[in-house]
Amino acid sequence: MWALDPFSQPRSGRLFANTPLPLLATLATGAAVTWALVDRGVLPAWALRVAGVTAGHGALLATALAWARVPAASGVMVVVVLFLAAWAAVHGVVGPVTYLAPVLSVVWLMWRGRLTDLGLGTRVSLRALLTGAAIGALLGAHLLVSASRTFGLHVRLDHPAEMLGAIGYDVGANVLAAECFFRGALFNRALGRWSFASATIGSTLAYVVRYLVDPLLPKSAGLVVGAVFYLALLGALNCWLFRWSESLLPGLLAAAVFFAAYRSLATG
Amino acid sequence: MILIAGLLAVVTALIALDGAGAGSLFRHAYFLPVVAAALRFGAPGGTLAAGAAVLLDAPFVLPAIERSGLTAASLDGLVTFVMLALVGTLSGALRARAVRHRRRYELLATLQRTLADEVTLDVALARLRSALAGRLGVDALVLVARDETGLVIAGGERVAPGSLVARVLETGASEFVRISRNGAGGRGILSRRAFAAPLVAGGQTIGVLAIERKGEIPAEERAALEALGAQIGLALENARLASRQRHFAAELADRVSAARRELEELDRAKSAFVAIASHELRTPLTALQGFSELLATRQLPSNEVNRLGGIMRREARRLGRIVSDLLDLSRIERGLEPALCRIPLAVEPAVVTTVDLFRQGATTHPIAVTCEPALPKIDADPDALERVLTNLISNAVKYSPAGSVIRVGARPRADGVAIDVADSGRGIPAEALGRIFEPYYRVPDAAGAARGTGIGLAVVKALVEAHGGAVEVESAPMLGTRVTVLLPAAQGPVP
User: Fold this and answer.
1) Over pLDDT 90: what percentage of chain A?
2) pTM of the model
3) B330 in a structural domain
4) What are the chain A neighbours of B210 within 8 Å (beta carbons)?
């Protein structure tokens, strides 16, 4: 039993300790400058998308890695990989496969045992993975039914390349960055300070806010309510999955499946 | 579970059939399965059922918002979502709280039952641990308690210095730690909690109750565990005191019983002593009385007068010896040492003089004296030494067959002189060797073999020890006995 073994002080410090502020400032500045240049017609419109993906998801991913005590160079590497993936995706170099690059870089770090603080590289049961997939499928299915009743939208799979591109973006940037940061980093830190309920509320609120401020989210009341509803449920369930399975993978799977369902709708 | 799922499905079907969408009054019926789940499965069940109800009701509420915006009906639907979540979670939490209270009382009863039997501390802790582990719903539980020899641990091998348990034992304050699968400082997800509460009795920390769980240990539960620690401490202390009291009572009963037996034996020995002493005293008195009457009433030739006078002197000496022994014994029994008048004394002349007295009186046993040369003088009372030697030689004569040689010797030792008196008599049984110096004690089969009061060796031992010496006995049945008296040498220049 651990209580009988030599006691080492639990991890402590401020909630936002080890945040890579110089890197975040660089990313923010880069995005702002790109926006200004695009606005003035100096840069093409796609540059803003590349900068947005890099700054938004790169900031979350780099912060998660820094909080997990991964060397800063690895964080910068992941941001660079994300930038290249976004650039390649925009130019359609190798399609949605480009977003596998950030995934592979995270897997490489995981393989080296650097991401245990994020819940990656630890043992995970098949049951937990199936539960994650089931939660994602349930929420996704509910979304499809609800969207069908609400907006009259239906699943359309006649644009597979576009849909796969969106799914690739979700897997390699959107879901990966969000889960690593909001569950693996933020929720885990909160869990070390507060109760599960408090940590879940805090983490889920931040998760929902992140999507609400996303410029790509349509601002109609129905969509905002729907987004809050599903993202809050997904966030809370992923927090539970994270603590229950002691791994980030089931949550990643749940979110990936849910967003895949969303993309089948959104791209229709 | 099936009933709850069925109720959720029925309510959803009713809302769908009602056709009122977000404003359907049937949505309030979701509270029924939600409350049922909360009462059956606690907060997780209530929350899950509420989530399921929200998911099922959402396809009726969200389209209304999309169609008409946030109208009163759609807002009402959203409020219902919140209410369902609140009712499910709170009623589940209340139910869990009630269950916790019930379990706490059950725990107390278990505690009393477990410690009711008289068992050793390690057994009590092991029983307590197995009783608590299931009821507290923990992944690991350890109970540590201090006893006279150290720490008794149930649920582990040892308490490492600096561990959580060691810290609580040292400080007496409970500790709560958020840990990962790899411990507090280890990497990984901080999904586990450890809590250690002191076991308190009489204001002292007598042990620790430590638990680990994947999941929360809420503040309320921690407070309950602290109270439980105090109750366990009190129960252990009560059990310990009760056990000690029982042991004390049993020990007291044993001691009383032993003392009674001893007193009875002493009483019997004293009765026997009185009879024997009366006889021992009467014999010389009879001789003195008889011979003195002869001398007083008859005209006897001078050689006959000398012979009778010699007999009377021996009997008077014997009488005096018995009286001296009795006086010494009386002092010993009062916890006093025999009165001595110690002087530097040459051993060989003292030994030879005593042996000569025996040679004159008892001719049945030859007595061989062997004193090594250059014996140091001893610091002794001459009369006491004579009585010691007289007692020992007298015993040797009494308990060895006529004609066998009694050997008396003296030899120097590093710190004094050793005087041996050895016979070839019946010997002393091994089981009696430890008791021969007790007053009134006589070796059972010796009582019929020779006369004696049973106080001689007790007096010998008291006299020798009063000199700062010691008495050693070696005996082999049917081969003989050797008694060695060790007396310290006289200190300083000896004249």
Assistant:
1) 55
2) 0.63
3) no
4) 1, 3-4
